[in-house]
């Protein structure tokens, strides 16, 4: 979690090590390793590989709960964007994906948090965080 007095984020050493190890991987490498012997790759494999590559550079810090359905998060992605204070709201996943924090699979209908729609559209507009994961982060903060 992020200590607001020092601006330092605690990082799980295991997740940091996995992130460092996967930095040399590309989507093509992951897809090649996951491809069945017949050489056919599925949309699911490609999506999972892309999510893994995207997730490795994201740091999310819980700032505060604003309402029963909204929270304020700090989102830092070294490769795409950084939002010091971004409002996320509860929703139901309309399609499958990957939790940006835990890497767990998100199924259609799962309770999630996603960035509140704004103009201009945030670069992380497609990101999802499982509600159960965010609740664990909130209780630890």
Automatic annotation (TrEMBL):
Keywords: Lipoprotein. It holds the Pfam family DUF3331. PROSITE patterns: PROKAR_LIPOPROTEIN. The keyword Lipoprotein applies. This is Putative lipoprotein. It comes from Burkholderia multivorans CGD2. The lineage of its organism: Bacteria, Pseudomonadati, Pseudomonadota, Betaproteobacteria, Burkholderiales.
